[in-house]
Amino acid sequence: MRYLALLLLPLLGFSCYSFRGISIPEGVQSAYVPNFKNNALSAPPTLFLDATETLRDKVRDEARLIITDENPDIQLIGTLVDFRVTAEGASPAGDVAAFSKQNHLTIVVAVEYKNLRDPSDEGWKSNFSDFYPFEGNVALAAVQDEAITTILENINEKIFNRAFAGEW
Fold first, then answer.
1. CB atoms < 10 A from the CB of 102, how many?
2. In whole angstroms, what separates CA 11 from the centre of its chain?
3. What radius of gyration do the chain's Cα atoms show?
4. pTM, whole model, 2 decimals?
5. 62 — phi, psi (to 5°)?
6. What is the C-alpha to C-alpha distance for residues 70 and 83, in angstroms, rounded to an integer?
7. Over the stretch 80-120, which tens digit does the pLDDT of each residue have?
8. What's the distance, CA 8 to chain centroid?
9. What is each CA distance from 158 to 31, 34, 141, 162, 166, in whole angstroms?
10. Quick check: 36 and 52 in contact, CB under 8 A?
11. What is the largest CA-CA distance in the chain?
12. What are phi and psi of 91, to 5 degrees?
């Protein structure tokens, strides 16, 4: 009996961790996540699709909801708002000119959440952002794919926590 308890203890810990405090409203089994609108003029042309797909994957994999556009229980509508690089510190001028010591790639998305099963639930609208720092002497093109992947993971974690873990 003691050995059985020792064998089950790691499984109990794993199952508790996998739920991470997720709170999905009763009866909710499906979600609608349409393609993000692209309002960020300087963003790569497929970024709005990448943002959409990564959010769909997170909702499907971690909330275990079916992604559908037919009679969904909840909806998460997103808009890509901003994509910008800013200089965060200057180096002393050399022979030519001063340059940025570090740059930040920042992405901002706006998300509207609605629980379509509960008309009394007002839902919410919120902006989510994150940035990726990189050296000032490195071109954005050299780090862009990694930066976008990292930023979208962080933004989606924030969206997911707001929608399903009651964190804000």
1. 16
2. 28
3. 20
4. 0.81
5. -100, -35
6. 31
7. 999 999 998 766 655 555 567 899 999 999 999 999 999 89
8. 34
9. 17, 18, 26, 6, 11
10. yes
11. 76
12. -95, 155
